[in-house]
Amino acid sequence: MKVVFICGSLCFGADGVGDYTRRLGIELIQKGHQASIIALHDQDAIEEINEFQRVGETGIRCLRIPYKTSDKKRFLSAKEFLNAENPDHVSLQYVPFAFHLKGLPFNLASELVKVGKGKKWQIMFHELWVGTEDGHFLKMKIFAFLQKYIIKRMLEVISPSVIHTHLPIYKHQLNKLGWNASDLSLFSNIELKRLKEAQQGNILRACFFSQIGTSNEIINFLSTISKEIIAKKLKFEILLIGGSEEKMKAFKQSIEFLLPADTTIKHTGFLSAEDVSIHLQKCQFGITPIPRHALGKSGSVAAFISHSLPVAAPNTDKRYLNSVMSFLDPSLQSSVILSPNLSSLEKAKQATAIAKKEINVSKIASKFLSDLK
Fold this sequence. Notes:
This protein folds into 2 domains: 2-184, Rossmann fold (3-Layer(aba) Sandwich), CATH 3.40.50.2000; 203-359, 3-Layer(aba) Sandwich (Rossmann fold), CATH 3.40.50. α4 links the parallel β6 and β7 (162-165). The strands form 2 sheets. It has an 8-stranded mixed sheet with strand order 3-4-2-1-5-6-7-8, sandwiched between helices. A 6-stranded parallel sheet has the order 11-10-9-12-13-14, sandwiched between helices. The chain is of the alpha/beta class. The longest helix has 21 residues, at 138-158. It is built from 12 helices and 14 strands. Helices cover 38% and strands 20% of the residues. One of its GO terms (molecular function) is transferase activity.
């Protein structure tokens, strides 16, 4: 099978969907198929780039079109690339803000259907419209209406043979538009790098990775569990992995006086993917500001689970508390630490050891291929 992926950007480590697309494409190549990628609105490219990007020893051909390129030139380059590749399927990796700076790519569908005329289409919805998770302010409602219209129009114009998403609430929203989406869980962009050094037995570490945020729920969770940890004569450490120095420093300052004095907070600075993997393995659980119902779309959460770390997600949205799961796969739901105590942590840890097999990149790539046939 031959697949051309279309995403927004392909700068290593700077665009989560781009990293996802690259890794999925390379996995298809390693399975004996052909794949290439068009970055249609690349935020990092200054000029048009036709290159091979590599993960390990495997490379994938990529066309990177700068976001400042005129639409006429943008879609002409994409069409020429697609015609030269002549794929069996075109896979659109959709995030509204990836294709338009304000998240309103009104002409995307009409142009793409000309670019891939006569081809079979698959669309992966990484995100839908603001308001699915965000507040109900008037501005958000207007954005939601416009972004919802764009998606509805896109589905009608492109008429994809396969639709995927990795979040239950998105599947529900697409169904309300009259389209059935198939499950495709999100894998981690951080490949496991086996840790050789022995772990320190007297330290229990929690970590934030990339995404940070304070809330009463997060502070209460950390404060409560830290007291039990310290009562057991263990040291409690919070590790801030990756992210910008300025943001992480400000975050550290905002929470350290709210937690017990014996709690240590450290920041790693920017790390390579390999070093991120090593630091994740030194921790006992991950914590995220992502609302619990949206965990299935988070790359950092996928990285936690794939590294056997259960996930604390204290932030909840009362609209979705009882009706919506965090993940499409029920086994992944068991990886969530539901209460701020060591018993709940241990229970989720045991479940994570089993659940992580469900977000293996090879398994997900095989399902992707099976759904396209």
